[in-house]
Amino acid sequence: MAPPASFCSEISPSPANCTSYSPFLQLDTQCTSSFAASCLRLPKNCSLVARCSLKWSEKPSITPGALLTSSPQQLSTNPVFGEGKIGVLLLNLGGPETLEDVQPFLFNLFADPDIIRLPRLFRFLQRPLAQFISVARAPKSKEGYASIGGGSPLRRITDAQAEALRKALWEKNVPAKVYVGMRYWHPFTEEAIEQIKRDGITKLVVLPLYPQFSISTSGSSLRLLESIFREDEYLVNMQHTVIPSWYQREGYIKAMADLMEKELKSFEHPEEVMIFFSAHGVPLAYVEEAGDPYKAEMEECVDLIMEELEKRRVHNAYTLAYQSRVGPVEWLKPYTDETIIELGKKGVKSILAVPISFVSEHIETLEEIDVEYKDLALESGIQNWARVPALGVEPTFIADLADAVIESLPYVGAMAVSNLEARQSLVPLGSVEELLAAYDSQRRELPPPVTVWEWGWTKSAETWNGRAAMLAVLVLLVLEVTTGEGFLHQWGILPLFR
């Protein structure tokens, strides 16, 4: 059933009533796509920290879901957040700090079921497989890290971002502590949580340092937090909220446009430069099978940045491609390397690379883009190459993150009215509507990118039926050859092996 028109008008306020908009939506358990399409059309000058992940019903219950905010200046001058110690947890991937860290870092990465998704029947092989892959890939990965100084600068940069964010919050009269939790290397998320408990934090804002949400990045980190929160009585009672993605925030968009505009001026003919957005790739099945919103958010993010540049009279051609694919599965297209080659064939002579999904320098910017893709571009006939630096501690970016935290603080713990509700998933407080496609209704685990052991005429069924058939044929052939008996021998097809 579609929601009434009056209800939709409440969710899509005019700019004039944006500041007085109530954060409590009359919603229930799940948000349908039609509801999202008809109701969640928000005015551009309203900043969106969290959208509803709930469904309209005839007898709705009061549940916090969406937050429209006024300008950062209005919010930061007179914040009222009540009592309690405020903490902000920054989530990031992590990276090996020395060459000796590379193999164990890779093991942690590939042991994550959100990175390598095995059928439930074979999940006992997750860690042995991760060990095998990490050992096999470590030598080549070490070469890459050696070329950028012997390790990843990600921890150093993230620590600097945390300190800059802490200072920005204090300047805005928010005495918060900021923590860093890495998914695959030190300081691990578990370590950050222990420090949060020791410091007696009672109000926590969880802020993944990924502008766009993906199952394999923010989703993996939030799943880990869910498991930690469920097992700890202190955390169950700690009020919290999540900002799952923030690519649409005005400060972030302007900060990206500022860096791009500056780099364009380094070219002799700036107007002829192709703007090349390169984003980290994800398996195609994550989007098509599991409903990952990453691709849609990435495309919207690029559109918003280009709209900002057009306001500044920058009208360059641009394209978006995806990098860093691994393994035999199909990833989001177009691929960065293939796109660079095609642009060379089309006669493009100048490219400005923009690492759109990264806010910190690391192996994929310093080695993959700056070395591999640059070399490929020059070999493909492209004569001029430059790259926009990652945001790092760029002041406009940090100030905007501080505003995002401040805007979310009045809603910290809004769902934690009882221990029972506090034990529910960490994610819905700060979820966007697309998350419902990526998480199951219980928010307990993500669906695999290809549904396993499904039979019939479906895409996933064809994949697994074909694999099962190939395995069966291989087993039969081995038996025929080793025993000299079987259907092929009886039919005279393999007489040489009698």
Automatic annotation (TrEMBL):
<comment type="pathway">
    <text>Porphyrin-containing compound metabolism; protoheme biosynthesis; protoheme from protoporphyrin-IX: step 1/1.</text>
</comment>
<keyword id="KW-0350">Heme biosynthesis</keyword>
<keyword id="KW-0408">Iron</keyword>
<comment type="similarity">
    <text>Belongs to the ferrochelatase family.</text>
</comment>
<keyword id="KW-0934">Plastid</keyword>
<dbReference type="GO" id="GO:0009507">
    <property type="term" value="C:chloroplast"/>
</dbReference>
<dbReference type="InterPro" id="IPR019772">
    <property type="entry name" value="Ferrochelatase_AS"/>
</dbReference>
<dbReference type="GO" id="GO:0005739">
    <property type="term" value="C:mitochondrion"/>
</dbReference>
<keyword id="KW-0150">Chloroplast</keyword>
<keyword id="KW-0456">Lyase</keyword>
<dbReference type="InterPro" id="IPR001015">
    <property type="entry name" value="Ferrochelatase"/>
</dbReference>
<comment type="function">
    <text>Catalyzes the ferrous insertion into protoporphyrin IX.</text>
</comment>
<dbReference type="InterPro" id="IPR033659">
    <property type="entry name" value="Ferrochelatase_N"/>
</dbReference>
<keyword id="KW-0627">Porphyrin biosynthesis</keyword>
<dbReference type="Pfam" id="PF00762">
    <property type="entry name" value="Ferrochelatase"/>
</dbReference>
<dbReference type="GO" id="GO:0006783">
    <property type="term" value="P:heme biosynthetic process"/>
</dbReference>
<dbReference type="GO" id="GO:0004325">
    <property type="term" value="F:ferrochelatase activity"/>
</dbReference>
<dbReference type="InterPro" id="IPR033644">
    <property type="entry name" value="Ferrochelatase_C"/>
</dbReference>
<protein>
    <recommendedName>
        <fullName>Ferrochelatase</fullName>
        <ecNumber>4.98.1.1</ecNumber>
    </recommendedName>
</protein>
